[in-house]
Amino acid sequence: MFFPEHWALAFFRVLEKEGNEAVEEGIETLEILASWVSSLPGEVFGRSAARKLEKLIRDAMAHISPVTPPRETAVRLIVFMVRKNVIQHIDPVITEIKKLLDKKRGLLSVTVECAMPLEHELEERIKQVLLKQTGAAGLEITKTVNPELIGGYRLRVGDKTIDASIQGRLRKMKTCLSEEGGNLWQISQT
Description:
Blueprint: H1 4-16, H2 20-39, H3 47-64, H4 69-83, H5 90-105, E1 107-114, H6 120-134, E2 138-145, E3 152-157, E4 160-165, H7 166-189
Parallel strand pairs: 1-2
Antiparallel strand pairs: 1-3, 3-4
């Protein structure tokens, strides 16, 4: 089983010593390399592919710009993932690295799902409440429209969900009524 969090944490810890800018440069380099590797024809994995890939990357980087510690770390991660045949998991690793950087910066990623486009006043109220309750330095809000919610909104903050949608309320009501209905049915049968 592959755990992108472990790979991301290892990469992040190496670059964290250099500062936030190093992490950003490492992520940027990693994204570029991942995109390039995924565009290569055929499957790229194993020791020999890793050696060839490393040579290609290093030759290309020598012509573009000087190799910095963050870029070197990104190259090493890509080559290692190719060698271990887990390069297909690079996107989740990059996502986890970005989460770690946001956490270090005090940024909170929030997804707001609404039945209709989110009104500015509601967005500002949500921001104020979340900043106050979480103590985050800032929010990164992703907004999506989902007409199935009927009305209201659904917030996803990390691994927590706050469902203030009409669809969610109807679902809760249905559950409560079916549970109570079952109890009422049993009472009336005795």
